Please model this.
Amino acid sequence: MLLLFVAPGAGVSAQRRRSTPATASATSAARAAAKAARAKAREDLAKATAEYKASLQKLLALREANVVKVSAQHDKLKELFTDGIISRREIENSDAALVEERAKVADVRRQMEAADMMLAESLVEDEVAPLPVFVPGAPTDHVRRTAYIRYNGFASWSLADAARIESMFVSKFGRRLPISAFGQTELHNRWGYDHRHAMDVGVHPDSREGQALIAYLQSAGIPFIAFRQAVPGSASGPHIHIGRPSHKVYR
Ligand SMILES: [Zn+2]
Model:
């Protein structure tokens, strides 16, 4: 980027010097157009995300109401079971129904988070945010204020390496790696993002888990992008994308 502003050097031939301004201006016009197209794409995605989340919010309200209803029924059935009026089988069925309704609620919440994560990843596509590069040992104050941190790594990475990241995480934190997208998902297809060689982990980069994961990826040379938010200033969409950045596939 800096090169664009470097004055033509003294050693450049006269012919070249004549052609440079025209070429430079064509190049900078093309870049400006591409930048505008990316900004527009991100704006569209932000709008689509808001609409999509609004529809999920309605679905969430319905499903949460179902949980309340099924939970109240279940409480009544428990009393009937205690009084010996209904069978164990009936109470077990009711219990399973409640578990299912709660899982449906969790599923909608996951879909909402996935939408925010995708919006966060469009920051990289668009380069709306400054492009901080993770420098081991650098003061973290600088990167802490930014929307995301990008580390390019040196290792060849594939989704097959996910298992060793998972085992590090399990041994350190005693729970499974919260993977919210493994490779290409339906949402990526829908909005035209290539996410085939990447996975998203739903941890905040500044959390203890996030910091441990970042340290591990960096020591293993695995590329990642750690997102603090989807929209600068917001608290939505934090996650760690492992792999090279996903790109919008323009059609
Ligand atoms: Zn991702």
Observations:
- Residues 127-248 form one domain.
